[in-house]
Every structure is written in structure tokens, then in C-alpha cells.
Amino acid sequence: MKVDVTTLEAGSAGSVELAEHVFGLEPRSDLIHRMVRYQTLKRMAGTHHAQDRSQVTVTGKKVYKQKGTGGARHGDKSVPQWRGGGKGHGPKPRSHAIGMPKKVRALALRHALSAKAKAGDIVVLDKAGSENGKTSGLRDAFGKLSLQNALIIDGATLDASFVRAARNIPNIDVLPVQGINVYDILRRKKLVLTKAALEALDQRFAAAANSGEGA
Questions:
Q1: pLDDT digits (tens, 9 = 90+) for 149-167
Q2: Which terminus in the chain has less CB density within 10 A, N or C?
Q3: Strand ranges (DSSP E) for 54-165?
Q4: What value, to the nearest 5°, has the Cα angle with vertex 173 and ends 124 and 179?
């Protein structure tokens, strides 16, 4: 699949061929959904905590005598039936993370990239850089490229001026190629890849393509 390469000034910078083993798969929504669920569950803090009857601070005195009241038999007020008592089977701190094989996670990323390519929502930049680090200039450049909601993926190292200029623009995210993930790809309309990012992705998934994994 061949796509045009553009500059931040909306000029032409030639074209590039997208690797079929990365961007040419038939997207599987079930696999992408599994990966999004894996990521969102892993992000959950799991710090919710409720006190049970052994942890609440109440009197241990018997509420009233055992017999003769005509009511139910009760002991102290730490039980869930009483106001101020412990929570029965309440939540405790735990991890919500689920397991997912590394090869399946890598395959899900390729399917997410292929989904963006199939929808025509991939933009290839010559490079992502800013000379003065000004947000206003970068906002104008994104306007020329019709990038109002986008994830920008650069090479292994990011241009500090570009990151500083982009961080104040709403709905624009900038990540190095090693930070690319399915959740962030899907939450933005456009996926912007630099030529350096494309080369890194091609090298990253070349071994999987040669072995025929997850086609």
C-alpha cells in the first residue's frame, strides 16, 4: 500500500510503501477488543477497600439480653445488620489485570494499525519537529493538514520543541514509537506516523512476518 508523505507545511515529500505484514491485515474486531480490555483493566488502580466486621470501631458489648425481648438474638454492633457495622463481602484491594500472551498483544497492534490504514486515517509525516517550540505555529500547521484529533508517533527519540508545542493542543497526543499502543490508536481519529516510526515498526514486526505468525 503506497501513501503520500507530507511535511508539516502541507508540502509533498514523496511517497512511501506501507508494509503489508503491518498495515495490510484484515482487521479483527475481537482481537482489538481483547487488547483494549487488557489495557484498561491493567490501568485500574484496584485500591477500593471496605471495612469488614473485624476492622470497624464499635462497641463489643452485647446489644441487649439474649432472651425475653421478643426480638432476634444479637451480639455486638460490628455485624453488617447494624448501622456502622462492617461491610459484608465488600471490595478489597486487588489487581484487575488479566493475562494476554505477548505474541497476541503484538498481533492486536498490527490489526489496529491495519484498521486505521483500511479506513484511510493514516498520515505519514516526513519528520515531526518544531524550530521555535511555539504552540500557535504548530496549531496552524495541523490546521493545514486537517489534524484536529490525532495521535502522532515519531521515532525512538522525540523532538523536545515539538512535544512542548503540541502538549497544549487539545486532542493531540505525541508518543515515541516504543510507546505505540492499541488504546491510544483507537481513541484518536487520525494516526500520524513519521518515516522514522514506519521504519521502526517494519523492523519490529519483520521477524513475525518471516515466521508467518498471526497473519
A1: 999 999 999 999 999 999 9
A2: C
A3: 122-125, 150-154
A4: 80
- The radius of gyration computed from the CA coordinates of the chain, to the nearest angstrom, equals 27
pLDDT digits (tens, 9 = 90+) for 102-148: 999 999 999 999 999 999 999 999 999 988 889 999 999 999 999 99
Q: Which of 19, 21, 22 is nearest to 3 (CA)?
A: 19
Residue 95 near residue 101, CB atoms below 8 Å: no
DSSP symbol at 5: E
Give pTM, 2 decimals: 0.83
Judge whether 207 and 103 are in contact, CB under 8 Å.
no
Cβ atoms of 116 and 191 closer than 8 Å: yes
CA distance 153 to 200: 11
d(CA 42, CA 44) in angstroms, rounded, equals 6
Q: With CA atoms as reference, report the closest residue to 114 among 214, 14, 34.
A: 214
Cell for 193? 506516523
Q: Are strands 122-125 and 150-154 parallel, antiparallel or unpaired?
A: unpaired
